[in-house]
Amino acid sequence: MTEIEDRKVGAARAARLDAVFAALADPTRRAIIDRLSRGEARVTEVAEPFSISLNAVSKHIRVLEASGVIERHRKGRDHILSINTRSLDEVDGWIERTRRYWEGRLDAMERVAHELRKHDSR
Amino acid sequence: MTEIEDRKVGAARAARLDAVFAALADPTRRAIIDRLSRGEARVTEVAEPFSISLNAVSKHIRVLEASGVIERHRKGRDHILSINTRSLDEVDGWIERTRRYWEGRLDAMERVAHELRKHDSR
After folding, report:
1. Dihedral, CA atoms, B15, B91, B48, B59, nearest 10 degrees?
2. Closest by alpha carbon to A30, among A55, A61, A51, A52?
């Protein structure tokens, strides 16, 4: 891959992460994902438990689709929604990389604290 | 815990998740976290690699602090920034719960596909 291509891939991934994080920054959208995490469902089934209008739920669903977090396919006359776990993998990967350094540090601090306590109790 | 308290805790957690996801939905803010994931740093050190103004970086830092993703403490005249890994744990926990169902389903589908292929090759 050339450097320019490499930068394009990086920019595309950054844009995807922007969209996924922004999509998840809303309690109604997270509730929709919670529902779909128990199994795929029709749009009307997803909308049913919410007190907001079907139109308002549909807007949230479109944000989730645009971010790639959920997918839609047709089964006859029904529109079926399901989670695209790959988009969550990408987010998870990012958090994992960020956290690794700190976990190592906290482990080391815990070991030091443990040693100090042993000395204290002698 | 009473039901009302339970709802308050739920609402507080939802508000925290909203703030964390919104904070992470920006490439500059994720780059700041990347920098801090390699170790705590002064505000000026964090700002240095960016082509935007110190003032613009400071705004991003304040968004990250308000969401609880990063923390600030003073060491003499310096303001030191570090990641608060607990906020990322909460996000990670949410993603994990959401994904578990689907992973189970994908595993089951893979087993079925594997069995069908064995039958085919007989």
Report:
1. -10
2. A61
Q: Which candidate from B37, B39, B99 shows the least CB-CB separation from A98? A: B37
pLDDT for the residue B62: 97
Which pLDDT belongs to residue B86? 84
Write the burial class of residue B122 (CB in 10 Å: 0-12 exposed, 13-18 middle, 19+ buried). Answer: exposed
Positions of chain B with pLDDT lower than 70, given as ranges: 1-6, 101-114, 116-117, 119-122
Position B109 scores a pLDDT of 60
Q: Does A2 touch chain B (CB under 8 A)?
A: no
Residue type, A37: S
Of all residues in chain B, the one with the smallest CA distance to A34 is: B98
DSSP string, A89-110: HHHHHHHHHHHHHHHHHHHHHH
Q: Which residues of A touch B110 (CB under 8 A)?
A: none
Nearest to B91 among A17, A95, A103 (CB): A95
**CA A10, CA B59: separation in Å to the nearest integer?**
24
ipTM of the predicted assembly exceeds 0.85: no
